[in-house]
Amino acid sequence: MKSTGLRLSYLILLFCSVFLSRSTAQDVPAKNRSKPFSFPPQLEMRVPFGPTAFPNGSNFYLIYELYLTNFGASPIHLKRMELLNGDRSGNAPVLSFDSLELKTMVKILGNNNLKDALNIEAGQSAVVEAKTSNKTGFPNNIIHRVIASADSLDGAAINTHTTKIQTLKPPVSGSDWIAADGPGNSIDNHHRRGNIILGGHTVNSRRFAIDWKKVKDSVSFSGDAANVRSYFCYGEKIFAVADGTIISATDGLPDNIPGHGKAFHPAVPLTFEKLPGNNIVIDLGDGHYAHYMHMQPGSLHVKKGDHVRKGQLLGNIGNSGDAREPHLHFEVTTSSKLLYGDGIPYIIDHYRLGYQNGFDDVHHNELPKEKQIVDFGNARER
Ligand SMILES: [Zn+2]
Asked: Which of 143, 148, 290, 361 is the most exposed place for a label (fewest CB within 10 A)?
């Protein structure tokens, strides 16, 4: 008896709810009916390490990574991205990237070869390798606006002065230096694409790294390509960029025979610790560390714990560790540990840029960009 009564009650309730919902829908004019509720696009926007604007020529630059993860069940198609002024109410856009520009900066994580990286499938993540410039500098605070499919989303607030900009002396002297794979966003820039997971989070110690090589008529050597001594920069002196304490100084690894691609055969099997070859790390203060890599065996003039003065001789350029031809890999990061820190920008007190007629374009307190050819003057001038 009891169960039959309950069943009857359910039937009455079901009938009432169907009847009521029908009559409600019929009574509300079409124009007043609201869209069914839905959350905003389920796109996580994250900048793990905030940028710092740096000067080069007549512009200021920002280089950083924005990570996007689609937490929703349908694809999100990126159409545009705007950087909004976070210092002003109304958040006026400071800069915007259309889909063509975004295509050069966005990568789906785990798949570098996708033709349409602007389509982030459900559960996928992408990285926006952002690079932008502005003549007048940037607001202190920037908010990202992602225009995706039929919707837009504001988020990922960043500060444009995350770290202090240190003024450094050049790490080498003389002319004909090329800032190979230096600060920039070229598609073949291997430092820029150096984001890896270490300690469970993403870092890019090489974001502003420069491979300093010497070039004459656009080539870095003359004669036998398999001899380190054929390279114009081999054996060049390396200097302390600032006063500081030597955190580590590692010597004893042999030079590799130069060779690129399949012709690269490191002199010793590479391990994580051996990637930098013979190397020096200087504590610059403020949590900044200068890393010098691939030095010539037996050339180190300093040891762990030494205090060095800016301009002091540290050693010579070699071809040790993960180096395919002689060069100085130089980077400033937030960690004394190899690859564990985030690469940060700095400025060099004085250099001249190379043009066809020589090196007469003087620059003060700027950071050279990728592929720029630089004259640092001789050690006496500095
Ligand atoms: Zn390098």
From this structure: 361
